[in-house]
Design brief:
By secondary structure, the chain is mainly alpha-helical. About 65% of the residues lie in helices and about 0% in strands. It contains 17 helices and no strands. The chain starts with 6 loop residues before the first helix and ends in a 9-residue tail after the last helix. The relative contact order is 0.06. It holds the Pfam family ELYS. Keywords: Nucleus. It is found in: Nucleus. This is Nuclear pore complex assembly-domain-containing protein. InterPro entries: ELYS_dom.
Amino acid sequence: MLDYNRLHAVFPSDGAVPYDQRGIQEIETLRKTLDGVLFIDRVLKALGIGEAKAYPPKGENGLRSLHQQVCDSKASAHHKLSVFYYFLLDYDGVRGSRSQVSEDFAIKSGLPKKYQILMRGLWHMDRKEFKFALEHLAHPSLPPEFADEIVIILVRHAKANDYSLPLAYYHTTQPVFKKSEALDLLFGALARTSVTEALYFSRTHAESTRRLLFEKLILSVVDDRTAGSARNRELVSLPLDGAEEAWFNEYLTSGEGNKLKLAATTVETRRIITGRHRGQIRARGLDDSTATARPARSRPSR
């Protein structure tokens, strides 16, 4: 069994190293583009390892210090090995596709496969290689660890309004969000991708949250000047229930949505499509014809 307490039983003593000046600069640049926090930062913090931004280690002395901090922590052996496995993926990254430093370590240390899958997924997230990250993080053997943060990053870094990756991650893992930001961003991605799917998603939440999401859906469509007519047609044709119909009208006539330029038009279009407009016209027509047919009162003779 590998003795991970020995520095060079974990890290190779020769060959290319990832924590030279250039490697450190690349990692710091990635951290800045990911809102100042890498997933390995979150892992280390959760395990009580090291100080803020202890990663990447600065040279040989920094690596030795971080290795000792991991060994001295109260984390389980599997968690310690997982952290080392992540670091060794850095070594593979600078040594080329044929490098198997991390794989050899996993075999010698007996690191369970699910920990390898998780850490490799987080490593790809930190490299902004999101497609490869999801091939691991959406694996059925994994609980949805860091689900909020994963969704937030995937939505924020979606290109050309392509939200297929965050939506694929959500549909595969079905996480329960802890942060309202993650829920808002995912719902926004849903609303911009499929108005109907966003409606059904909103119905899976308690009424107070459901109404907020529903109003957010209306806003995302009516206020989107670049969306064209397709999303508007989809919105006004939705199969709303009684509560949603009331929320729709209230939001666009007397609520915050009545300030939107197309609010009145959207309400009127919805009434026409659902038949309410025609019904009102028929009712008014009946009243008018009745009034017309009513005989005029004769004027008294003088």
